[in-house]
Amino acid sequence: MNERSQSFNGSDKHVQVIARPRPLSDNEKSQNLTSYLNINETRREIIVNCKTSTTRFFNYDHVFGFQTRQQDVYKVVVAPIVDEVLKGYSSTIFAYGQTGSGKTHTMLGKFLMDKTSKDTVSVYMTMLESEAGIMPRAIHHIFQGLQRQYVDYTVKITYLELYNEELTDLLADVTNEQPEKIKIYEDKDKTNTIIGATEVICETPFDAFKVLIKGAQRRQTAETLMNASSSRSHSIFTMTVTMKDAQGDMRLGKLHLVDLAGSENISRSGATDKRAREAGTINQSLLTLGRVITALISNEKHVCYRDSKLTRILQDSLCGKTITSIIITLSPANETETLSTLEYGHRARSLKIRPEINQLSSKDVAREYVDEIRRLRQELDAKREVDGIPYSQYLALKNQMTLVQTLSDNNQAKLNNNEQQIEQYRTEIESLRRQLATQQQELRLEINERKEMLTLNRCRYDELIQITNKALTFREQVVNAMQQLCSTRSAGSTLIDQYIKDCQSIGDNLQINVQRINEDIRTILSTCSQSVGKVLTISTNIGQQIYILNEKIRAVLSLAFQNFHSIFEELNNIHNHFQTELDRELRLLIDMLVVEIKNDVDKNQEKLIQIQEDTLIKMKTCFQEMLASCDLSNQSLWLNLHKFLTQRFNQMSLMQISEKSTNDGNELLDLNNIRTACLNEHEQQVFTTQNKLEALITHLIESLTDINKTSNQKNTKLQNTTLIQHIHNICIQHGHEIRQLLETKLQCIFSQVRDEYEQQCDHLLRSIEHDINQMNLILQDMNNKFDSSSLITNDSISLLIKQSQRIDVMTKNLEYDWQMITQSVDKFECETIVPPPPIAIPKTDAAIKLELAIKEQQQQQQPRLMTIDNKENITDGNLLPAPIPISSRTATVNIVPCRLKNDTPFF
Ligand SMILES: Nc1ncnc2c1ncn2[C@@H]1O[C@H](COP(=O)(O)OP(=O)(O)OP(=O)(O)O)[C@@H](O)[C@H]1O
């Protein structure tokens, strides 16, 4: 291989040395060991506080802390080196340190040290974010880089173990009973080639990871006193990467990850016999490594690579063409070994390197293939030599193979025949399989059914067991109780006797109480029935009182009618009196006139006789007409009034009065209207009479004037004028008197009727209120009796509730009636027309007579005094209507109509 040299970053470099101390283990902490290392990461310095000597200071390319994470170590130390490998460099990373200092932890990591790891992919997925060491992270990194940077690549992995100067292929087939020994072959140009190592080509990182796990698990480990899983071997994990970029340039990168064995000396490790030899060998290899490093540092001409297989294998890495890094792992509690390691690392740091990129031209590739073929040939030759297989045997084997081939051909025909049979068998087997599947399906169904049945039975069985358990428990409880009862029976018999006696006395008391309560209930029921009777009596009384009220209203109206009748008679008398007076006055006037006229006639005899007769006839006629008209109009007016009142009186029914007192108001309004009409009519008649008189007098005056003209007697004229004035005054005075008299009488009648009605209503209301109060008292009494009794039977309660409901209904009815009466009274009061104040007029004879007549009427119609005796009966000496049957007065108060003698309907 012709390697074209390229300067690594353009300058010489030294071997990178990184220090990584581990924290104190639990074991060390339990021994109260303390760390004698002080780490200054910034200054990349480790200070060793030596117990025996002075404090030592060591500087390295990088110094990690005790708690540095795996990914940080990879990121800082390995990732840049792997990037260089992907560019075509070869690089080697050593882990150097005493046993138990953390070499394997740093190189492989926790997971891969765990030999029970099974699922490669899942471990791979978790390794990058957990305790995975440099190796798995480097695999991942290299494949990522290759996929990103190159169009074509191949990755080959070898994994070797050096144990007792014996190389072991960790990737070899373990089933091979005689595994091939690995040899280091040195070619002409002193290049060391390892022969016999399995080179696994990996296409994916998973393949590479599998390879890593396989190798790691095969590493031989031996236990020492210092570490429970101490490794006594060196392991060399190599990844060879051939890369081809888009331009067709090819490069070769190599990464050696070397986990060295422990660097401790034999005495401290405690190894004996075989182990001692192992330990010594280990130290010899490391010693050679150290010597090689020293020789390289001091540029010695002879470098003893060949003294150990380790240095032979790593010759390329150590001679300076490779990027080399050493991670020294430090145990914080072992001063001597750690100092040795620190010094080792410090020396190695002086080792100069001049890495070169391995770029391959097509010529180089061809050459490499030629070399490869040559190497394979040499390998074959070596095999022939080593295995010593003679060529003759080879030929014999070949003949045997030919024979086997012939036999095989002969058997082929038989095989073809058998194939048909096999096909038939196959068909049969297929149908049998189908049958089997059907039967299996049926069986499965049956099994499922059975299972369900079984489950059901199990449930029932469980239930039965539970019930049985409960029964057993109960039986035990019963037995216990029985036992307790037996034990306490004798002691409790006296108590039981006493108890029975007590019970008997309580029973007697109870019986007495029950009897007493029954009596109470009976008393309450009788009281209730009495109360109900009282309520019904009161209701009857209220009905009777309503009847009495109606009767009184009727009587008042009858009195009013009689009063009106007497007033009308009085008015008739007054009118007759007025008429008589008027007649008398007129006759006197006429007589006077006749006398005077006779005197005149005597003087003018013949001429005046005719005038006198004419005048007299005219006057007579006129007065007769006037009187007739007055009489007629008055008579017709009174007749109308009388007719109206009679009609109203006959039409008036006490039913109407009781239902609505509005009618009363209307009747009184009508009466008032008639009164006004009467007054107006009379006034009109008086006015008409006056007018007619005035016209007559005017006519007389004119006649007399004519007579005067004729007689020329001035004295007679004067007398006539005085006479006329006198007549006029009489007419005015009488008309006025009559009108005032009428007004006064009518006012008296109306006020009397109203007072009477109000008195009757008040009395009735008071009696109804009294009845309601009594009913309330009875109800209260009943409630109290109810409350005092706590043992009322259900039947009694329901009966009493019914009674109470009935009483409630009756009370509501009574309240409703009372409300209606109150409304009627209010309405009557509102609608009653208040008459004007009386006018003080000197009383005439007729007025005095009228007053006397009214007094007589009032005396005849004195209000009846009603009393209520102890049995709630009302007595007033008058005929009462038949009592209202109780059965018909349960919910509402029914009014039974009846008739008086004059057939006027009333209640
Ligand atoms: N940096 C670290 N952080 C935590 N634990 C660590 C660290 N390094 C090592 N250990 C623990 O210390 C113990 C010994 O580590 P490890 O087996 O890697 O030592 P070693 O140097 O490989 O020993 P040997 O040479 O005998 O193989 C292990 O249990 C490991 O988990």
Low-pLDDT parts are 1-8, 222-230, 266-273, 651-665, 714-718, 831-844, 861-907
Radius of gyration: 77 Å
The biggest sheet amounts to: 10 strands, mixed
Number of domains: 4
Question: Can you count the helices?
Answer: 19
Number of strands: 21
Bound molecules: adenosine-5'-triphosphate
The dominant shape is elongated
* Mean pLDDT, all residues: 70
* Strand content bin: 5-15%
Broad structural category = alpha+beta
What quaternary form is this? single chain
Distance between the termini: 150 Å
Summarize the structure.
The chain is an alpha+beta fold and 907 residues long. The protein is built from 19 helices and 21 strands.
Please characterize this protein's 3D structure:
There is one protein chain. The chain folds into four domains: 13-360, 3-Layer(aba) Sandwich (Kinesin), CATH 3.40.850.10; 373-405, no CATH class; 421-462; 524-907, no CATH class. Helix 14 crosses helix 18 (794-831). By secondary structure, it is α+β, with helices and mostly antiparallel strands. The chain is built from 19 helices and 21 strands. The strands form six sheets. Strands 2, 6, 7, 8, 9, 12, 13, 14, 15 and 17 form a ten-stranded mixed beta sheet that branches. It has a three-stranded antiparallel beta sheet with strand order 3-4-5, covered by helices on one side. A two-stranded antiparallel ribbon has the order 1-16. A hairpin with a 5-residue loop joins strand 18 (867-868) and strand 19. The relative contact order is 0.07. The chain has helices at 26-30, 70-87, 103-107, 110-113, 120-127, 134-149, 205-218, 266-269, 273-297, 309-313, 315-318, 335-348, 362-387, 391-651, 654-659, 662-711, 714-788, 794-831, 845-860, and strands spanning 13-14, 16-21, 37-40, 45-48, 56-59, 62-63, 90-97, 152-163, 166-169, 183-186, 192-195, 200-202, 234-244, 250-259, 323-330, 352-353, 359-360, 867-868, 874-875, 898-899, 905-906. Adenosine-5'-triphosphate (ATP) is lined by residues 22-23, 25, 97, 99-105, 227, 229-231, 261-262, 329.
